[in-house]
Design goal:
alpha+beta; Rossmann fold; Thrombin, subunit H; six-stranded antiparallel barrel; 15 strands; 29% helix; globular
Length: 347
């Protein structure tokens, strides 16, 4: 099945059922990816470690593991992706597409320019997290994050570029990530002011001389940067309560209403807990605005009152719920259960 999936994606396949022959092949030839069946986890870890000493030291490694088996050790050895058995064609196609994105990340028409700059990022499940830019161009950027990001999620950035005081704010989508914390982002939404800053900086640094200067600046500026604190709150509860609330990523169509109007604002609910949520919408309101969120799911209509806590113009809003009685709390709990059930089905 994996061979068919790979071939459908235009990837030639060579199968080795013998570990000794596989060692010889990775010594002889560079491969775009290795898929390793971890029937014997110890032998698989040893093989991955050996792979990283050959010309395939940066090859993407996909491991096949039994559901429920811990994978921390095998990721620490250098695995990039895990496929859990039994493997469905849909899951295999999704994971191999992601692996192909990682394989092709350096095969770009426009090269990435090295850059060292601290950033503040937000995504479903995290209000604010420190990250470091490592390269960028007009279409995307590479970043090193402290934690693993949800696959294919939207990420909100705020950062400044070297020798430029303007703050860049934008939204992007996760295209790939690896076990070392490196993440590839494709830009999704860029306000005009930020786009102009990016394009000017890329143009000034896109020559060979400019790239060399950027590399030199990266080496000198790691400790000289001023960290940005974006305040990109996705969930809107107090700092003391944030870690106590279970957060769940989701993709639910929703409508938002101002308390003074019945004109709906179409949006997408992308993150929810019992204390608040994040809604993606092109039309946003300032913090403090009272709103009503309407979500239709499982044949039910959920109506939840809340208020805007954080606003990302052109992107969305972080909201906290205003739950005044047990019935409203019950609605949130029912919606949370629906989101959790949907997540289990997608797994």
């Amino acid at each position: 099945m994996l061979s068919r999936v790979l071939e459908d994606l235009g990837i030639a396949v060579e199968s080795c059922s013998d570990a000794g022959r596989a060692r010889l092949r990775i010594e002889e030839q560079s491969f775009s990816a290795l898929i390793i069946d971890c029937v014997d986890e110890g032998a698989a870890e040893e093989f991955i470690t050996y792979t990283r000493t050959t010309k395939n030291d940066s090859t993407v490694v996909v491991v096949l593991v039994n559901g429920g088996d811990p994978v921390n050790d095998i990721f620490a050895k250098g695995a990039n992706f895990a496929l859990y058995k039994p493997i469905s064609q849909e899951r295999a196609m999704h994971s191999i597409r992601a692996a192909r994105g990682l394989i092709e990340r350096e095969r770009r028409i426009q090269p990435r320019i090295p850059v060292q700059s601290r950033a503040s990022i937000a995504y479903p499940g995290k209000e604010e997290e420190a990250a470091r830019l490592v390269d960028l161009n007009d279409h995307g950027l590479g970043v090193r994050a402290e934690g693993k990001l949800p696959p294919s999620c939207k990420v909100y950035f705020q950062f400044s570029l070297p020798e430029n005081d303007s703050v860049v704010r934008l939204a992007g989508e996760v295209m790939w990530q690896d076990a070392a914390g490196r993440v590839g982002i494709r830009f999704a939404q860029i306000p005009q002011s930020s786009r102009k800053v990016l394009q000017t900086w890329v143009q000034d640094n896109s020559s060979v001389e400019g790239i060399l200067q950027s590399q030199a600046a990266c080496a000198q500026s790691v400790d000289a940067e001023v960290g940005l604190r974006a305040g990109l709150g996705l969930l809107t509860v107090s700092a003391a309560d944030r870690r106590q609330l279970e957060r769940q990523t989701c993709r639910l169509g929703a409508e938002v209403y101002r308390m003074t109007s019945r004109a709906p604002i179409r949006c997408t609910l992308s993150d929810i807990s019992t204390g608040g949520c994040y809604v993606e919408a092109s039309e946003t309101m300032p913090p403090g605005t009272a709103l009503e969120i309407v979500v239709r799911a499982q044949g039910s209509k959920f109506v939840i009152a809340g208020a805007v806590q954080t606003e990302h113009r052109g992107f969305g809003m972080g909201m906290h719920f205003s739950l005044r009685n047990d019935e409203q709390k019950k609605q949130v709990e029912q919606l949370m259960r629906h989101v959790q059930d949907e997540a289990k089905v997608s797994e």
